[in-house]
Amino acid sequence: MNRLWSSVTNSLTPYVPGEQPKNIDNLVKINTNENPYPPAPGVLEAIKKACNKDLRLYPECNAQIMVDSLVEFYKLKHPDAKLESENFFIGNGSDEVLAFALRAFYCNQKPLNMNDITYSFYTVYCDLFGIPYTIHPLNRDFTVNVESFVKAKGGVIITNPNAPTGIYLDVSQIKYILDNHKDDVIIIDEAYIDFGGTSCAELIAEYDNLLIVTTLSKSRSLAGLRIGYAYGHKDLITGLNVIKNSFNSYTMDRIAQVAGAAAIDNWKYYDIITDKIIRTRQWVTAELDKRGFKTLKSSSNFVFTTHPDYHAIDLARGLRNQGVVVRYFNKPRINEYLRITIGSDDEMQRFFDALNKEFGI
Amino acid sequence: MNRLWSSVTNSLTPYVPGEQPKNIDNLVKINTNENPYPPAPGVLEAIKKACNKDLRLYPECNAQIMVDSLVEFYKLKHPDAKLESENFFIGNGSDEVLAFALRAFYCNQKPLNMNDITYSFYTVYCDLFGIPYTIHPLNRDFTVNVESFVKAKGGVIITNPNAPTGIYLDVSQIKYILDNHKDDVIIIDEAYIDFGGTSCAELIAEYDNLLIVTTLSKSRSLAGLRIGYAYGHKDLITGLNVIKNSFNSYTMDRIAQVAGAAAIDNWKYYDIITDKIIRTRQWVTAELDKRGFKTLKSSSNFVFTTHPDYHAIDLARGLRNQGVVVRYFNKPRINEYLRITIGSDDEMQRFFDALNKEFGI
User: Fold this and answer.
1) CB neighbours of A343 closer than 8 A, spacing ≥ 6?
2) What digits encode the pLDDT tens for the residues B248-288?
3) pLDDT value at position B22?
């Protein structure tokens, strides 16, 4: 209790991000779901071009250059979604977009519904904004209990594919939830969608209460630049802008805007590296099987895995001794699992070598 | 009233930033207090160096590289402030830092006190966070009514030098307010301090309730990169981090971090361009005098001026016809004033030429 802090500051337990070691030169860093491949060459070129005297000037405040790229991209990849400029909102990482969305669409009157095992930032936002929440336990096989969400009162936020499980929920199931929550905003956090799921994008033409949030940190190799976006009905985007312009009008700097646009434009490059990551995931899953691990079916750039003969915490520590950093969550239901990011083939070979050296498996 | 918005979203009136015209090639843009000179060459070099494959990785979440530069800088320029790493907080523009600070230190129990004429974002934050506020009218000469703040209950936020007036409040007066608010956080927003005022930095060693907020957008020519920071007692910085890590853990991207550090390191360059801007301001003020304008004494990179024979709105429109964009606020007490950013000598000559061509003054 600090006398100079507000009551909310005194009451909060902040989010704890995964470890970001200072020097990673000799580490295999497969703990925070970064992409092992570099950003598209076009992204680096765009940044170098924008690195000039115009940095003295404020940026355009809606990141329109990136919105324009997104409109083109979705016309090509999701034509039935019929998305225009007014359907997109850009933010400083999907964390910021999610924070704005929770403040924009939920209040203390109705709870926000979420899975027990999901992105742990959601409850932190709720505590910050005074939003009550209802926790829905995943089924025993870690799939989403859809009926429970259908019956619940209030808003819904679901990560799809889920994290840290990696399990994908079919679009038909999300449609089922949307049909039963016409007056609540349903947020689908598709941070990992490019690695195996089908986006709900097309549902936006049909549902004015669906907001999809995603990030350029994972499939676009740009965790270092903090770029996320949301898309949905234009009234939801207007609501997001009301909150943003009551908090910080210029969230996207000039460099991030052009880099984000270039990352969207260079989708062919990213399709290729995404395919590589999916192939590596298949190989890693098969190798884990051979070593006795039980791995959930992943549609993400990570796998969630457990071994019957070793405690997950011991595995994590042993791997760390060998310079391999994976993510361990000391939480009920998942404290015998490790979340392992899919790195390059070489990195994953070093992961298996470390397992062998430390545990003989 | 939108059925899908939260009650707070339905109630807010967001901040309206100054106009950012798309194509400024033929304009004299002196409306949003940008610096007419480019960032230091070292800043652009630092960005180009950071533009590499590591952008795939999350940034360090406290912008430690920039904090390290700030510690060195303040040791040199403000040794008596005795500032260490734990005294600094970096954010995505000072607007974000201010938003975090208001959420961290004020609540609905006591009002936040501010001037009637000041940065108009403060009341917007209060509305967003449900913080009551008390407005203290500036004196008739637009100086701060210090006694009114001394007597008031609750926190205090003051821009110094004030905007849009440009008038500087002496450190002794801020000390007087601090002495009478030992259990409230006093925020001094020093966005414009480098253009003529004395920073309160040294008071931090003495007052645990003082938070200074500033920006790299003005004196460091980096409005396009969105970098601001706060400094104060370490407990205040911890409070800011509680809020930040409940909202968005990675607010500062890799490029902004190294650019911010380089901008602080290259202070010699910035001292030179700041001196140029101050000299231009002196010349502009004298020229405005000759033309019959009444200009408040500015310690900022802008002047706030009025003309007895012309309505400010007409002057703003006439200048716009000539391609000169200045800031006009349609608000009580100041609706006969223009806020004019100090550009380069050449830009200010074009401003005077436009005045002459349009109004014959």
Assistant:
1) A28, A29, A30, A36, A280, A351
2) 999 999 999 999 999 999 999 999 999 999 999 999 999 99
3) 79
Q: Give the Cα separation of B216 and B32 in Å (integer).
A: 14
User: Chain A to chain B, count of Cβ pairs less than 8 Å apart?
Assistant: 275
C-alpha distance from B59 to closest chain A C-alpha (Å): 5
- Residue A336 DSSP one-character state: T
Do residues B182 and B209 lie in contact, with contact meaning Cβ atoms separated by under 8 Å?
yes
Contacts of A104 in chain B (CB under 8 A): 5-6, 9
Nearest CB to A2; choose among B55, B235, B244: B235
Q: Which residues of B are less than 8 Å from A185 in CB distance?
A: 4
pLDDT of residue A23: 82
Q: Tens digits of per-residue pLDDT, B309-348?
A: 999 999 999 999 999 999 999 999 999 999 999 999 999 9
What Å distances lie between residue B145 and B14, B106, B177, B182, B237, CA to CA?
27, 22, 11, 19, 29
Q: Is this model's pTM higher than 0.95 or not? A: yes
Left, alpha or beta for B119 (phi > 0: left; psi -120 to 50: alpha)? beta
Q: Which ipTM did the prediction report?
A: 0.97
The tally of CA atoms less than 13 A away on the side-chain side of residue B32 is 19
Whether B222 and A55 lie within 8 Å, measured CB to CB: yes
Q: Rounded to a whole number, what is the distance in Å from the CA of B100 to chain A's nearest CA?
A: 9
The burial class, CB within 10 Å (0-12 / 13-18 / 19+), for B238 is middle
Q: Which of B6, B13, B215, B270 to mutate to test the interface with A (most CBs of A within 10 A)?
A: B6
Residue whose pair of structure tokens reads 């060693």 in the numeric block: B205
Q: Do B12 and A246 touch (CB under 8 A)?
A: yes
Report pLDDT for B16. Answer: 85
- Is there a contact between B247 and A99 if contact means CB atoms under 8 Å apart? yes
pLDDT of the residue at A77: 97
Collapsed DSSP state (helix, strand, coil) of residue B134: strand
* Structure token digits, residue B320: 């716009």
B243–A12 CB contact, under 8 Å:
yes
pLDDT at B25: 84
CB A250 within 8 A of CB B95: yes
B255–A255 C-beta distance less than 8 A: yes
Q: Using CA coordinates, name the residue in chain A closest to B30.
A: A57
Q: Which residue of B has its CA nearest to A123?
A: B246
A107: closest chain B residue by CA: B6
